[in-house]
Structure formats: structure tokens, C-alpha cells
């Protein structure tokens, strides 16, 4: 008797995200549907939501990310389908990022976890020529605290002012201080 392998399905999360970004003058509510891949953790999913909140716009959306190597975690395209923003979460390899830099106007990476500094030390020289690449790190303690906000149905608020980011859910509020590994030179 042969046993069939069944693919695990993504778990669907819903988030009502209220964004007040005083730095960009962007104020909006987004109803997000997030497909969390079986191999994705709450921590990674919440860093994806954070990246979405930081770059939110009418045209920003989640890509297939983990489940498709041809799409990023978040991206924004213009009306001609040109990629304005390509956003990655985690520690992507240099070939993927250089390819993205050739396809998009701007590429941003939000690394997280304890190994981020080691990853960046290995990647830094390989990615030096990528002038449209920004790499920011979410400190491990912060990304782990973000994971505690994860629920199947979330009510999230994100406030950004003077580079200061606050994410909250109900009574729980978290200050997020990002480390800049590589700044945009454009």
C-alpha cells in the first residue's frame, strides 16, 4: 500500500492594521490576509507585517515570499508593473538580492534573529555594489517580542514618528528600534 504525501497548507491570519506614519504623512487602515507558510514562524510573519507597515501604500502587497523564489515577501508595483519596492524578510542570499536589485527601483531587507550580524558580515562585501539596497535589522529581542503579538485575528496599530516605530495590539505596546546595516546610497 502506497502512502500519499499530503502538502501542508498555509495557515490564514487576518490583521486589521492601523498605520499613522507622521514621517511620510501616511494615515490608513489596511485589512490584511496573511498566508503563513507551514515552515514560517510567528516571528517571521510579524516581521513581514512590520515591513508592510513601514512601507505601506495603496499598491503595496504581500508576495508569495517563502513559497515562491520569484517573488519577495512584500512588493509595490506601479501601474506599468514596474517594481518600485522589493522587500525581503530574513537572511536571503546575495544572488537573490543582486537579482532583485536589477529588477526593482529599491530593495529592502529586514533581517532578524540572533544570527543576523553573522549573516551580514558574510554578505556585506558581496552586496557593496548594490546601490539601491537597504538592509535593516530587527534585534532578536524585538522580533521575539513582536511574535507575542501574533493571533489568528489581530487588531494592530503602528505609529511612526521621527524614525521611532511603535507597534501595539490591545494593551501590549512595543517600541521597535531598527539597526541599519546598509543605507540607501541613491
Structure at a glance:
The chain is of the alpha/beta class and 186 residues long.
Strand content: 35-45%
CATH superfamily: Restriction endonuclease-like alpha-beta roll domain
Oligomerization state: single chain
Helix/strand class:
alpha/beta
* Number of H- or I-type helical stretches: 4
- Can you give the mean pLDDT? 92
Number of domains: 1
Question: What overall form do the CA principal axes indicate?
Answer: globular
**What's the Cα radius of gyration?**
17 Å
Share of helical residues: 10-25%
* The first-level CATH class name: Alpha Beta
Run of helices and strands: EEHEEEHEHEHEEEE
- CATH architecture type: Roll
Q: List unreliable stretches of 5+ residues.
A: none
Give keywords.
4 helices; Restriction endonuclease-like alpha-beta roll fold; 186 residues; 5-stranded mixed sheet; alpha/beta; single chain; 6-stranded mixed sheet; 22% helix
Secondary-structure blueprint of this entry?
Blueprint: E1 11-21, E2 26-36, H1 42-55, E3 60-62, E4 74-77, E5 83-89, H2 94-103, E6 104-112, H3 116-123, E7 133-138, H4 140-147, E8 153-161, E9 164-169, E10 172-176, E11 179-182
Parallel strand pairs: 1-8, 5-6, 6-7
Antiparallel strand pairs: 1-2, 3-4, 4-5, 7-11, 8-9, 9-10
